[in-house]
Structure formats: structure tokens, C-alpha cells
Amino acid sequence: MLTEALLGILLLILAFSYANRRPKNLPPGPWGLPLIGKFPASQVSVSEQVVELRKKFGNIVSWRIGSRIFIFFCDYRTIKAAFAKMEFADRTDFFSAGHFNKFTRTGLINTEGLLWQNNRRFALRHLRDLGMGKTRLEEAIQHEAVCLVEDFARHAGRPGPLPWSINVAVLNVIWQMVASRRHNVDDPEIQEVNKLINLSFEEFQDTVVWFDFMPWLIPIVPHFVKKWVGIAHLPDYIEVISERMKVS
């Protein structure tokens, strides 16, 4: 009985080691521990850590974060050559991105392949018809810039963060192009919508990263845990933001 148990444990260890092996054709880089890989240090930005990895491993670096393998291209020529190929046109199926369209893989941001190409062509064609790249859009940008400068003048002379009017100005350029409408940059209602969007991202990003990097957690983590850490609230945020945008 003991022999069979030891043999079973040995086989499990061998199978686990085989599944965790580093692919031979993978670029050099940190591999980390099984299942969790090597997470980025929280005290330093990921971009700064990649710069350090580049010094050690070269212009193409692999990094296993969680159970996902990320490949970093660290020079212009490599990036240009890679993204000219269709093999690099797909989108990563991040759990966080799927939340924003209820995992339907529709729209522009969270689609891939032929669907993404067709949606992109459709969007660009109609955005050009609506004024993108034309004089009308330039005039709209200049008008928002003037309004923004006037609003900034009201905040001059005292320290503080950038006013929310800058977010409204950016929104207005797009909103005028697609809906022929704009908001005053100091409009409290539309600023509240922007703050709600920002809040949803801040609360979401703190916890969802675990599910992005370790997708094997998704089916085993109970719904009440997702709700407790705030992930389950995102659809509610999106619904509120959509309703606010309709009203605005």
C-alpha cells in the first residue's frame, strides 16, 4: 500500500514537472514558480522592470506572470517587424476585458481575427465620414482647447490635481463626432460620469489582476468572494455609467 502511494506521488511530481517545463523555443527571461510564475515587484513599475530585464536578456524577453507567458519586444525594429504580421494581431483573452462586454467578445477592443478586422474597417470608415481627419474635427479640438484653458485659469494660483474638465474636453471631441453633441467642460453631471468611470477602474484593477494572470482561479473562486473583492460589482458600474450617458 505504501509503495503504491509513493509511486503515485512520484508520478504526480513527474507529471507536474513536465507540465511546468519551460518551452525550448521561448526567449530568455524569468520563469518563476509553478502556477504562480514570478509576479512583478510592487514597488517598481513593470516598464522599469522590463528595462532591467532587457539589459540582462536582450531585446526579446519572456516573463511568466502567474500561469501566463508574456513576451516583451524592447526595440523599435523588432516591434515594427512583429506587428506587421497577422500572427500578432490577436487579443489576449483577459478576464478584466471580458467584463466590459459581458464576455460576448464583441466590439473593437476585445475581439480578434476576422471579426476584429471587419469591425475596425467599419469603425474607421464611419469615423472618417463623421469627420475624423478632417477640418471639422480640428476645429472641434481647437474649441475644446480654448474652453479648457479658460477653465484652467479658474484654478490658477493654488496647488491641486488636474481638474476633471480635461476628461470632459477629450470626451467632447469624440462625442461631437459621433453624436453632434458636447458638454460644458465644467458640467458637474458629465464630470460625475467621468469620476464614476475612473472609480470603477481603480477598484477593479486592484483585484482583477489575479484572475488575468492566473485564469485557472476563475472557475474555482466562489461568486461571493468575487463580490467581496469588488469584481462582481463591475457590471453594476457599467450599467450606471450607461444610464448616466443616456441621460447626459
From TrEMBL:
Print the keywords alphabetically. Iron, Metal-binding, Monooxygenase, Oxidoreductase, Signal
Q: What positions belong to coiled-coil segments?
A: none
Q: What is this protein called?
A: Cytochrome P450 2L1
What GO cellular-component annotations does this UniProt entry give? cytoplasm
Q: Which GO terms describe its molecular function?
A: heme binding; iron ion binding; oxidoreductase activity, acting on paired donors, with incorporation or reduction of molecular oxygen, reduced flavin or flavoprotein as one donor, and incorporation of one atom of oxygen; steroid hydroxylase activity
Concerning InterPro entries, the annotation shows:
Cyt_P450, Cyt_P450_sf, Cytochrome_P450_fam2
Similarity comment: Belongs to the cytochrome P450 family.
Keyword Transferase set for record: no
Q: What is the source species?
A: Penaeus vannamei
Query: Which Pfam families does this entry report, sorted A to Z?
Result: p450 (PF00067)
From which residue to which does the signal peptide run? 1-19
Decide whether keyword Metal-binding is in the record. Answer: yes
Q: Name one GO biological process term.
A: organic acid metabolic process
